[in-house]
Design a protein that fits this description.
By secondary structure, the protein is an alpha/beta fold. It has a 7-stranded mixed β-sheet with strand order 3-2-1-4-5-7-6, sandwiched between helices. The N and C termini lie far apart (42 Å).
Length: 172
Amino acid sequence: MNYEELLTDMVKKYPDHVKNARVLELFSLSNSGPYVRSFFTDCTHVGIDTVVGSGVDVKSKILGDVDLSSLAKFDTLVSCQRLDEDPHWEKDLKKLSKFVKPGGIIVLEWARSDDGPDRDAVVKVLKISGFHLTSGDESDEDDDNWTVVAQSTIPNRKVEKVKTETEEEKGG
């Protein structure tokens, strides 16, 4: 399943998470316009990436170091195509999943590669973080991408302040 199919499916299955919702997009840089954002209607959309450009609201060297504690929790966390490029994917996903509200969803699509995480590793991190898998391709070996959709199972998820590298070095 590619990201277009994944997002189209998400719109059908999770209408409350794509209309009038709060959306956090990881690796939001769009070279061809705000494509992922076009699947969301009347939403508050925050895009974070490691570079500046179209679709990027917040730039951070390490995505998990972004401090979102001053913002309301998100209905949806979405990432299409670049999770496999993130050397800190596990740390970033654990930290950023805390900003998804109870009942919220995480929608991920990334390339199958020798350098990136496999599906089972991502599902394990999501489960540890309080999410259950609602869909995802398990056995389509011909597909070049992995896809996973998971929903929060924690009723009162606490948002912890995400420390930056500088704060951690200072012991703050």
